[in-house]
Amino acid sequence: MDYDCQACGACCAFAADWPTLRTPRDHGPEGPGPDWTEEGHVRWTGSRCAALTGEVGCEVSCTIYARRPQPCRDCEPGSLSCLIARRRHGLPVPEERSGLEDLFA
Q1: Can you give the residue range of the structural domain that contains 31?
Q2: CB 75 within 8 A of CB 82
Q3: Global pTM exceeds 0.90
Q4: Dist. CA 50–CA 75, nearest whole Å
Q5: Cβ–Cβ < 8 Å for 64, 72
Q6: CA-to-CA separations, 49 to 33, 39, 46, 82, in angstroms, rounded
Q7: Model confidence over 24-79: pLDDT tens digits?
Q8: Rounded CA gap, 25 and 68, in Å?
Q9: How many domains would you assign to the chain?
């Protein structure tokens, strides 16, 4: 399955408490900066990251991609976090991933 992040964006519109910036590595001088963070989290607008532009499932981009925090970098295409976010937004998820059925029941 092709995971085109710029045609998805589901992980950036998953839950307002994700990602949590727990360590200086997550939000240090190379991180997104104070304009993009709030109370230990990446700042959200409604149900999505404030840095996300475009329409989830169609075409998106991250306005702070080069400076995105580590939790954002850790959400790899096809990972469990990715698949959960994709399913939440009604986007295709490969059927062959064992163990996922229980998460989506």
Answers
A1: 5-104
A2: yes
A3: no
A4: 17
A5: no
A6: 14, 14, 8, 15
A7: 565 555 666 666 666 666 777 888 888 899 999 999 999 888 878 777 887 889 88
A8: 11
A9: 1
